[in-house]
Design brief:
Shape of chain A: globular
Helix content of chain A: 25-40%
Radius of gyration of chain A: 19 Å
Number of helices of chain A: 11
Oligomer: heterodimer
Number of strands of chain B: 9
Largest interface: A-B, 20 and 19 residues
Order of helices and strands of chain A: HHEHEHEHEHEHEEHEHHEH
Number of helices of chain B: 3
Number of strands of chain A: 9
Distance between the termini of chain B: 31 Å
CATH class of the largest domain in chain A: Alpha Beta
CATH topology of the largest domain in chain A: Rossmann fold
Structural class of chain B: alpha+beta
CATH class of the largest domain in chain B: Alpha Beta
Strand order of the largest sheet of chain A: 7-6-5-8-9
CATH architecture of the largest domain in chain A: 3-Layer(aba) Sandwich
Largest sheet of chain B: 5 strands, antiparallel
Number of domains of chain A: 2
Radius of gyration of chain B: 17 Å
Helix content of chain B: 10-25%
Chain lengths: ~300, ~170
């Protein structure tokens, strides 16, 4: 059976652990041992929505494993612009490559693609829904930073309504024992209340606040997000909330010792540049970890054991 | 013989949909009429009939040998708890209560305008029940959760576009 990575919800906790262990193994391997692993394999990189980081990360991951890539970085230059359906595009592309990585502005697009072809499909973001590879790299980074995924106190800050990164991360972290989520957002960008309801056997707790400084004092990890202009149906509302939370060195002076700050990037002005040099800053480390995690994902979906 | 039996004739061979909560009979009738296989079937409808269990109830009788499972599933969306009875020779030979399905496949449309199933021509829809009491369903594609009442039923194609299926 082919292996897709569409949603964090499809993965059992053992699957998450398997990916994290594989990423650690990939990170520890010398580059010379990696460059032959995916020789002759072609990754179809289909970005129906613009992205820099995720696309480059996947392409770098594939090439550093000896594989190659083909695809597009925006839908405008493809037959999609001529009105081709997603399913037809996927079935066409499936004739060429060995695996598909796709980003699409519509929620559920990766699931539909995965159901429409025999190639493994990796979801690199579907609208405001899921971004499972970002979540895996976030989990990998958190464990590297703090040494554990259990009993965390994590503040999620900013756009909790439209951020697919936040949705996926919450769904993954809540499975680990004793995770305390502090949700910091303007009222109009709160997390969906269905998400904060405890599932069977879960020990995660959720607290909502609008006060960033209070969260900084209480938590050991701060996960900042960008207020995403492109997801707002109403730009007046965007203007009202776009600068709701700005993390700067002054705010961090009140932080609990050892606080680390993550951000899925790109950032706009929610993290001031004066924070970059502080030991709390972990976002570029996150980016680096993304490479190892995506290499692990590619090896896994293509059935290659390093 | 009670008044209700005078209002709705006895059925020798057919289907009785009983214990429909009062007021929902016309919605159930709409569903029956949407399905090509049941179009043209003789149908009797009783609205606001006295009921020991419900106080008032609606009831529909169909002069049809059977009722397809997918039609019963659609009925379950508007009237879970209704009873379907199959009648043979004026006696009930099969009876079951209509339950809300755990999964809805191609029965309702996603409420999320940004869900791929609302954009891609011919895309299937699939929802799983995540809370039976609150009647909450989760879209398998966009993964959003909605109350069933928000999910628009997918209606059958107009009669002219479906092959006629005689009883």
């Amino acid at each position: 059976m082919k292996r897709d990575l569409v949603s964090i919800d499809d993965l059992a906790t053992a699957d998450l652990e398997r990916y994290l262990a594989l990423a650690a193994r990939v990170e520890a391997m010398p580059e010379r041992d990696k460059v032959h692993l995916l020789v002759g394999r072609l990754l179809m990189v289909l970005f129906f929505e613009p992205s820099t980081r995720t696309r480059l990360s996947f392409e770098s991951a594939m090439k550093k494993l000896g594989g190659s890539c083909a695809g597009f970085a925006e839908a405008a230059a493809t037959s999609v612009a001529k009105g081709e359906t997603l399913v037809d595009t996927i079935r066409t592309v499936a004739q060429y490559g060995d695996a598909i990585v796709m980003r699409h502005p519509k929620e559920g697009a990766a699931r539909l693609a995965a159901e429409s072809c025999a190639l493994p499909v990796v979801n690199a973001g579907d609208g405001a829904n899921q971004h499972p590879t970002q979540t895996l790299l976030d989990l990998y980074t958190i464990r590297k930073l703090l040494g554990r995924l259990e009993n965390l106190s994590i503040a999620l800050v900013g756009d909790l309504r439209y951020s697919r990164t936040v949705h996926s991360l919450v769904n993954a972290l809540r499975r680990f024992a004793g995770v305390r989520f502090v949700l910091v957002s303007p009222p109009s960008l709160r997390l969906d209340p269905h998400t904060t309801r405890a599932g069977p056997g879960e020990t995660a707790t959720f607290e909502e606040t609008t006060d960033l400084r209070a969260a900084v004092r209480q938590c050991e990890l701060l996960y900042m997000t960008r207020i995403q202009k492109e997801r707002f149906p109403d730009l007046i509302e965007y203007e009202r909330v776009k600068d709701a939370y700005v993390l700067d060195a002054a705010v961090l002076r009140e932080a609990r010792p050892g606080l680390r700050v993550m951000h899925p990037l790109p950032r706009v002005n929610e993290i001031s540049r004066d924070v970059d040099a502080l030991p709390a800053a972990a976002w570029f480390e996150q980016v680096r970890n993304g490479l190892f995690v995506r290499q692990a994902i590619l090896l896994d979906v293509l059935g290659v054991t390093p | 013989m009670s008044d209700k039996h005078l209002l709705i004739p006895k059925i020798e061979d057919g289907i009785v949909i009983d214990h429909i909560p009062a007021g929902l009979g016309t919605a159930v009738l709409g569903i029956l009429q949407d399905h090509a296989e049941l179009r043209g079937t003789t149908t009797a409808v009783g609205l606001g009939l006295p009921s020991a269990r419900l106080g008032r109830k609606d009831m529909i009788k169909l002069w049809s040998r059977d009722i397809p499972d997918h039609v019963v599933q659609h009925i379950s969306l508007v009237a879970p708890g209704a009873t379907v009875k199959r009648v043979r020779g004026f006696a009930v030979d099969k009876r079951y209560v209509v339950a809300l399905p755990r999964e809805l496949v191609d029965m309702v449309r996603c409420f999320n305008p940004n869900c791929i199933t609302n954009v891609e021509p011919g895309a299937p829809t699939r929802f799983r029940c995540v809370d039976e009491t609150a009647r909450l369903f989760r879209c398998a594609y966009c993964e959003k959760v909605f109350p069933l009442a928000q999910l628009e039923r997918i209606r059958a194609a107009p009669a002219s576009e479906v092959p006629w299926s005689a009883e």
